[in-house]
Amino acid sequence: SYVLTQPPSVSVAPGQTARITCGGNNIGSKSVHWYQQKPGQAPVLVVYDDSDRPSGIPERFSGSNSGNTATLTISRVEAGDEADYYCQVWDSSSDHYVFGTGTKVTVL
Amino acid sequence: EVQLVESGGGLVQPGGSLRLSCAASGFTFSSYEMNWVRQAPGKGLEWVSYISSSGSTIYYADSVKGRFTISRDNAKNSLYLQMNSLRAEDTAVYYCARGVVPAAILDYWGQGTLVTVSS
């Protein structure tokens, strides 16, 4: 089955840039989506199709995808960005949605 | 405004059954794929099941195949998950989520319902 690997945690100071990676075999050939989940809340879509943002999501959230790694970048990090972030793809070989292992972003 | 409201969670003994429901509003339910995603306490997201807009195509995660059944009633704008032969490892918050094809985006999520499997 297809596996997506994320770092367990990323720490960043306010105003700096956080980069969260999502590794998978030839993930660059897939569409990657990213979700933000704050404690006790449902996930929220923040980036879809590698780099597009839903309406209402700040431009500070951006994404890229190439080779074996997709990346979610949060620029000018704010305290409110502290959350868990998950990447997700569709694995057509198994007809399964696949989520990454999740990354906890801590704002110092 | 898109709204997804889950219900039906609770405490059930191992081997028991439970039926979850998800009431949808604010969009044309019959035009969208739907999914169930779960999250065990303190763990990450795990996709559970998918159903196409017409109900003709269904997929399951290996961990629930043969025990869970997804269905929908487009006339009632509702999604269901029948869970049988429940195990302790099925304990989780269960979310329903709207799907957008072809890229399999989950663009709206409900607030979830907690299922606890314990004796």
List the helices and strands and how they pair.
The complex is a heterodimer of chains A (108) and B (119).
Chain A: E1 9-12, E2 18-23, E3 33-37, E4 44-47, E5 61-66, E6 69-74, E7 83-91, E8 96-99, E9 103-107
Chain B: E1 3-7, E2 10-12, E3 18-25, E4 33-39, E5 45-51, E6 58-60, E7 68-73, E8 78-83, E9 92-100, E10 105-109, E11 113-117
Parallel strand pairs in B: 2-11
Antiparallel strand pairs in B: 1-3, 3-8, 4-5, 4-9, 5-6, 7-8, 9-10, 9-11
What does this structure look like?
The complex is a heterodimer of chains A (108) and B (119). With 108 residues, chain A is mostly beta strands. Helix content of chain A is 0%, strand content 45%. Chain A contains no helices and nine strands. In chain A, strands 1, 3, 4, 7, 8 and 9 form a six-stranded mixed sheet that branches. A three-stranded antiparallel sheet of chain A has the order 2-6-5, with no helix packed on it. Chain B has 119 residues and is mostly beta strands. Chain B has no helices and eleven strands. Chain B is globular and about 40 Å long. The relative contact order of chain B is 0.31. The mean pLDDT of chain B is 97. At the A-B interface, strand 3, strand 7 and strand 8 of A face strand 5 and strand 10 of B.
